[in-house]
Amino acid sequence: MKPGWLMLAGLALAGACREASGRLVTDAMVTGDAITAPLTQTPGDPVRGKAVFTSREAGHCVLCHRVEGLEAPFQGNVGPDLSAVGARLSPGQMRLRIADPTRLWPDTVMPAYYRTNGLHQVAAGHKGEPVLSAQEVEDVIAYLSQLEG
Ligand code: HEC
């Protein structure tokens, strides 16, 4: 099995044993299908966001998403192509989808990146921490917002 698929299986498993506690995204933060207010005071940095998007150690979004013209050794197609996502979704809509996609798609394989619960497989030192920090979420949004196809 390729390492990518192994990780994918792990993520799906993490999704399967989610718990109700530990949500960082609260109902009050959500308006419709978006979190309109940024998670941090510091605006997102698209350059750092691109690194988070591709890095295995951070978001590793390329495991499931493709972006036209992005240089990454592997790009998956489990999730939608994000080459023009900036034209399709507002920053607030992206924020909810990245932070806690299960609020929109209860059975999605996409991990909740800003949520501490259900991450049974994280190393002990990282228990209780979200996969991405609030700033990393904002950085990824800044990067994706630039992608308009
Ligand atoms: C394990 C696979 C997987 C990973 C990893 C993943 N996603 Fe997703 N993503 C999906 C799937 C699948 C969907 C579509 C929702 C659904 O049907 O479950 C999606 C949907 C989205 C959407 C909405 C796209 C649209 O057109 O509506 C955005 C934005 C997004 N993902 C961003 C990200 C970002 C940013 C990361 C990394 C921080 C990431 N995803 C990591 C699988 C993944």
What does this structure look like?
This protein has one domain: Cytochrome c-like domain (Cytochrome Bc1 Complex, Chain D, domain 2, Orthogonal Bundle). It has five helices and no strands. It has helices at 3-16, 46-54, 85-88, 91-99, 134-145. The protein is globular, with a radius of gyration of 14 Å. 32% of the residues are buried. Residues 14-21 have low confidence and may be disordered. Bound molecules: heme C. The site of heme C has 24 residues, from helix 1, helix 3 and helix 4.
Number of domains: 1
Overall spatial form:
globular
Main sheet? none
Poorly predicted runs: 14-21
Ligand catalogue:
heme C
| C-alpha-based Rg, rounded | 14 Å
The CATH top-level class label: Mainly Alpha
Q: Give the fraction of residues assigned to helices.
A: 25-40%
The total of helices stands at 5
Please state roughly what percent of the residues sit in beta strands, choosing from under 5%, 5-15%, 15-25%, 25-35%, 35-45% or over 45%: under 5%
What's the short version?
The chain has helices at 3-16, 46-54, 85-88, 91-99, 134-145.
List keywords for this structure.
single chain, mainly alpha, Cytochrome Bc1 Complex, Chain D, domain 2, binds heme C
List the helices and strands and how they pair.
Layout: H1 3-16, H2 46-54, H3 85-88, H4 91-99, H5 134-145
Helix pairs in contact: 2-5, 4-5
The structure holds heme C.
Heme C binds at residues 8, 11, 53, 59, 61, 63-65, 78-80, 85, 88-89, 94, 97-98, 105, 108-111, 113, 140.
